[in-house]
Amino acid sequence: DRIELQTEGFEKYKKLEELGKGRFGTVFRVEKDGQPFAGKVIKCIRAQDREKAKSEIEILTLVQGHEKLVQILAAYQLNREIVIITEL
């Protein structure tokens, strides 16, 4: 199933500790209803950043169901950030 960027709903997640940081974003442990997930926060200052984030969402959607890869669960468009929620 295709994952669409949502503008509402991320407020239901509680951001916990940082798990890692890279050139393209920062990954946090997040929690929703007591369940742990990973939330990758991607700063989208330039249009190019937004396109890269959307491309990552598309790729993660294409590999849904592969047992060796983390599964994407949701994606949120915030002000100048995109947050990708995956399994932890």
Describe the protein's architecture and organization:
This is Protein kinase domain-containing protein. It holds the Pfam family Pkinase. There is one protein chain. This protein is α+β, with helices and mostly antiparallel strands. It has a single domain (5-86), classed as Phosphorylase Kinase, domain 1. The protein contains one helix and six strands; from the N terminus they run ββββαββ. It has one helix at 47-62; strands spanning 5-6, 14-21, 26-32, 35-43, 72-77, 81-86. Strands 1-5-6-4-3-2 form a six-stranded mixed sheet, with helices on one face.
Major beta sheet, strand line-up: 1-5-6-4-3-2
Kindly report the average pLDDT value: 94
Q: For the report, how would you describe the main beta sheet?
A: 6 strands, mixed
CATH topology: Phosphorylase Kinase, domain 1
- Specify the structural class: alpha+beta
The first-level CATH class is given as Alpha Beta
User: What is the architecture at the second tier of CATH?
Assistant: 2-Layer Sandwich
Portion in helices: 10-25%
The residue ranges in which pLDDT falls below 50 over 5 or more consecutive positions are: none
What Rg is obtained from the alpha carbons, in whole angstroms? 12 Å
Order of helices and strands: EEEEHEE
Whole-Å distance between the termini?
Answer: 20 Å
- Count of spatially separate domains: 1
Organism: Allacma fusca
Pfam families: Pkinase
Keywords: ATP-binding, Nucleotide-binding
Protein name: Protein kinase domain-containing protein
